[in-house]
TrEMBL record, chains A, B:
InterPro entries: ComB-like (IPR005238), ComB-like_sf (IPR036702)
Family matches, as Pfam families: 2-ph_phosp (PF04029)
Protein name: Probable 2-phosphosulfolactate phosphatase
Species this chain originates from: Petrotoga mobilis (strain DSM 10674 / SJ95)
Record lineage: Bacteria, Thermotogati, Thermotogota, Thermotogae, Petrotogales
GO MF, any single term: magnesium ion binding
Names of required cofactors: Mg(2+)
């Protein structure tokens, strides 16, 4: 089981990839699927997103944490929950600053699951149940640097999986395990978290730190860039 | 004070850069300067290294931890110490698998100091004495992935500097601080360390974990790629 702190690390072949962008892409994907979205197409290309609007997709996304002009939604789990009636059974395009770039790279390598705190135990249970032999956990980071909150979530995940099954851990996984005893308040004061607070997004930030609110497993087949929920709600 | 776990992170402008490749480039540079080498030219280009031989340089280096053919030395601090009579007052070219690639990137950004455990306190004292306002600490990693031993040394460095002066810490620095309580035995069992052991380089590996054996501050002016010792022996 390998942890990579950034998608531009030299990532090996794994049977399954677990993508992390706690603030906020993978939290958003979990919230959207919880609201009953049919599928989430993730792209880093804003123009492609806009083209898909004509095909009936709803548009969600941000750059620099700011909602994109002409989009139906930002990248806010709370906003999705407050609009679940509009989201149910819809196809959504999501484009974000960090997570969608990471997704592009990772989903080309293999099947990908989106992990957040909001759907933590659902993903853990799924991974253990399927008995994957070789797991790659990839953090999105923030603007090309390692992010504390993603590394922390990677560590929690490694810790929980290792309670059930034993894997060889790469150096990245060992580094992430050292973060699991950190105080939540330290993690909630990461560089990206501070930026969200400065933009008035404190509620959204705090919401992303709720554990196991949603029973969803967002799963994307290799090269599909599209998450669907493996758990029927 | 920012820590970057890999040289391909999005590295900001800093007044001074501290380069880390504990196994073994920055340990080797410290050992070479301790042995009285005049200067160490660091390059990732084996052909350039060979050309410099004709100009009187001694050649040191490896790929995949294996000494290069036709080179005077490998990348072994112990080997340098055992040959200090040949090294004294000489100019050396050093080319290694990870550290020399990192050096190329970092020294283009600014003046660079090489940090290892062997010269730990010398570098700490120098940084504090010069009162740098803005420090970038860059780990070389191993073949494009985060390495435990480099991240650990970064954490020790941040911790020691923070005892004397207060800096804003980026997320990477906070992650590295979490490693400082790790047992030395865990760090000495990192992926790269295991590889060195498998290659029969256990003595060299253990030697790199000696603290403060050498009073050297390897300093390279921006774009010179050449370390000289700021402390006269």
């Amino acid at each position: 089981m390998n942890v990579y702190f950034l998608p531009n690390e030299n990532i090996k072949n794994h049977q399954i990839y677990v993508l992390i962008d706690l603030l906020r892409a993978t939290s958003s994907i979990s919230a959207l699927l919880h609201c009953g979205a049919e599928e989430i197409f993730v792209t880093d290309d804003i123009n492609m997103a806009k083209e898909l609007k004509n095909m009936g997709y709803l548009l969600a996304g941000e750059r620099g944490a700011i909602k994109l002009e002409g989009f139906d939604f930002g990248n806010s789990p709370l906003e999705f929950l407050n609009n679940s009636d509009k989201i149910r059974k819809k196809s959504i395009v999501l484009t974000t600053s960090n997570g969608s770039k990471a997704m592009k790279k990772i989903n080309e390598l293999g099947d990908t699951i989106a992990l957040s705190l909001l759907n933590f135990s659902s993903v853990v249970d799924f991974i253990i149940q399927r008995d994957f032999q070789n797991i790659g956990i990839v953090c999105s980071g923030t603007n090309g640097v390692v992010s504390l909150e993603d590394s922390y979530l990677a560590g929690l995940f490694v810790q929980r999986i290792m309670e059930k099954q034993t894997y060889h851990l790469n150096d990245g996984a060992k580094v992430s395990l050292n973060l699991t005893n950190s105080k939540r308040s330290l993690i909630m004061n990461s560089d990206h978290a501070k930026r969200l607070k400065n933009l008035g997004l404190k509620d959204d930030l705090e919401f992303c730190f709720n554990m196991d609110l949603f029973q969803v497993v967002p799963y994307s087949k290799q090269n599909s860039y599209t998450f669907k929920n493996l758990i029927t709600i």
